[in-house]
Amino acid sequence: MSDSPKKILITGGAGFIGSAVIRNIINNTQCSVVNVDKLTYAGNLESLASVSNNARYTFEQVDICNRDELARVFFVHSPDAVMHLAAESHVDRSIDGPAAFIETNIIGTYTLLEVARNYWQSLDSSRQAAFRFHHISTDEVYGDLKEPGSLFVETTPYMPSSPYSASKASSDHLVRAWQRTYGFPALVTNCSNNYGPYHFPEKLIPLIILNALEGRELPIYGTGEQVRDWLYVDDHARALYLALNNGKIGETYNIGGHNEKRNIDVVLEICNLLEEMAPQKPKGVANYRDLMVSVKDRPGHDLRYAIDSGKIQRELGWVPAESFESGLRKTVVWYLDNLGWCTRVLSSTYQRERLGTIDREKS
């Protein structure tokens, strides 16, 4: 796919990663973007306020399970590529109610694939040859790493542990089947845990920041020994655009931050940063880390994820710009400077009592 200006249809563009991808494309390329998002609880157009008035940005409020509406969007906007990020992604929610995950992540992906395939087949030969469908997935499809020092590679067998990761694994398989059976020009990327600005407040890092500032408990599953590989969201956004343009059809690329951290160490580092940046604590709080509490572990909770990003580094030349320390500092600063955004997100789209739970996965 050429690097010339093109029109990219992005599903889930009002979500955490999707909005970062759109901001990156609008701010750093000449491409146009069509943002297709249902606007569920985790979708927030305020995350795109800085680019929403750009002539190269268009928003369509459409559910990817709605085949007629999707077909209309493709017909009206005639995209050159698709980046598919729309997904239900909260693991705890998938355990409590898996139906929405099956509907969006599996049925929605199937519906999008069929609409995109029919559209692709209607294009002339030159546009067909240039078209790309980029499916964005997660490292959780691989399951749990058992051996110390081992890493997920692109050929690691799938062993999902939660309804969420199982539904994402299913969507990955659908994309690969459409590529092989129909010759559909698709590729897949699997990422590690993202973090950064505009992350929905039920996720681990923003949850800990906001709870600490309010003097609320900082809940940690079990002993907090779970290990995750943390990837700054803007680094991921760059990698995704690079994969769309330079990745090979039919290939998979793993994207990780090379930042393995135990969850308890992530929480402790946030507490240390808040001691520095927000020394005026809530009444009765001597140290932010005193708010840490252990809660019952999640059913089927994977202990360790870690990604080998060697393939995308070798073949496409991508490397993360942020270390975990630099990225976390930027993230804490952003939340301290944007508490109003958090308040508006929580008051308009989220049941406040759920803030006492934690999730440490992608969205």
Comma- or semicolon-separated keywords:
globular; 12 strands; 3-stranded mixed sheet; alpha/beta; 363 residues; 7-stranded parallel sheet
Quick description:
This protein has 363 residues and is α/β, with parallel strands linked by helices. Helix content is 42%, strand content 15%. It contains twelve helices and twelve strands.
What report would you give on this structure?
- The protein is α/β, with parallel strands linked by helices and 363 residues long.
- It contains twelve helices and twelve strands.
- The protein has a seven-stranded parallel beta sheet, sandwiched between helices.
- The two termini are 27 Å apart.
- The model is unreliable at 349-363 (pLDDT under 50).
Order of helices and strands: EHEEHEHHHEHEEHEEHEEHEHHH
Distance between the termini: 27 Å
Shape: globular
- Overall number of strands: 12
- Uncertain spans: 349-363
Question: Helicity, in percent?
Answer: 40-55%
SS class: alpha/beta
As laid out across the biggest beta sheet, the strand order is 3-2-1-4-5-6-10
On the 0-100 scale, what is the average pLDDT?
92
**What's the assembly state of these chains?**
single chain
Give the number of helices.
12
What composes the largest sheet? 7 strands, parallel
How much of the sequence is in beta strands? 15-25%
Roughly how many Å is the radius of gyration?
Answer: 20 Å
Write the SSE topology.
Elements (H helix, E strand, L loop, with lengths): L6 E5 L4 H13 L3 E5 L20 E4 L6 H11 L3 E4 L6 H6 L2 H24 L2 H6 L1 E7 L24 H20 L3 E6 L1 E3 L8 H11 L3 E4 L5 E6 H14 L5 E4 L4 E3 H15 L14 E4 L14 H7 L7 H14 L1 H11 L14
Parallel strand pairs: 1-2, 1-4, 2-3, 4-5, 5-6, 6-10, 7-9, 8-12
Antiparallel strand pairs: 9-11
Helix pairs in contact: 1-8, 2-4, 4-6, 7-9, 9-11
